[in-house]
Amino acid sequence: MIGAARNSAIAVLSLGLVSCVPWTVRPIQPETAAPTGSTATANPAAYVDSIWLAKLLPSVSTSAVEARVLLDALAASPEQAITRYGRREPDAPPYFVVKGAGTVVSVDTHSRQGLLLVDIAPFDRRPDMSIQIGPVLRGTSLRDATGIVHFSDFVNQLQFADVGNELNNRVLKTVLANLEPTQLKGRIVSFTGTLAAEAKADPPLRELVPVALTVEERRQ
Predict the structure, then answer these.
(1) Which residues are CB-contacts of 204 (< 8 A; sequence separation ≥ 6)?
(2) What is the DSSP string of 101-170?
(3) Low-confidence ranges of the chain (pLDDT < 50)
(4) Contact at 8 Å (CB) between 85 and 100?
(5) Model pLDDT for residues 49-83, shown as the tens digit of each residue
(6) Angle at the Cα of 143 (from 152 to 177), degrees rounded to 5?
């Protein structure tokens, strides 16, 4: 009888311990939560889709400065030109959004980063700027020049870099897809795009990434 009573007491005590767990079980949370709205950034193409027509192209169109105006301003005072027309990020060159038209002096396709060398009026047959035509586009000016894309919107530097690459890819697929470089020398091109300024650059405006590029006509 004593053994049976002892076993019953142990059973009751065991049930009590099971039913009264002295701790709370919670799911493990990541140490750092992703920024608000960062779900789309996991897919760079989807993120670019969301801003390309709705934000980026309108911003470039409305904020672009005429190439000749910028060239003259840079020649007069680079710092004043940057203050008036440019955008500067920490530890980065100043960025400009530029539009205009000019004559293609030459086409450089010696590397995969093809370039149009363009003479801006008044014409002197010397290049004032270069326009990137691919098949490889260099730099992140399209991501950084407008102020639309912020690093704080992304989880890490890799996502930020991926979006810069995808913006350049979008230019290749849409703006430059049907361009024939061998037929461009001597032609007039109209352009709108972004570039990063470099001190004492030759030509003064270098490596514009175009969001619009139209081949107009052959000069006589």
Answers:
(1) 71, 74, 75, 128, 129
(2) EEEEEEEE-SSSEEEEEEEESSP-SS-SEEEEEEES--SSHHHHSSS-S-GGGSSSHHHHHHHHHHHHHH
(3) 1-2, 5, 8-34, 36-37, 39-40, 220
(4) no
(5) 999 999 999 999 999 999 999 999 999 999 999 99
(6) 145
Read off the amino acid at residue 149: V
User: What's the CA angle centered on 206, arms 200 and 134, to 5 degrees?
Assistant: 150
Render the burial of 13-30: b for 16+ CB within 10 Å, e for the rest: eeeeeeeeeeeeeeeeee
DSSP type of residue 72: H
Contact criterion met (CB below 8 Å) for 163 and 154: yes
Give the closest residue to 108 by CA, choosing from 130, 126, 124.
130
The span from the CA of 179 to the CA of 111, in Å, is: 16
Please name the amino acid found at residue 37. Answer: G
Strands 187-196, 205-218: pairing is antiparallel
169: nearest Cα among 131, 194, 197, 134: 134
What are phi and psi for residue 202, nearest 5 degrees?
-135, 110
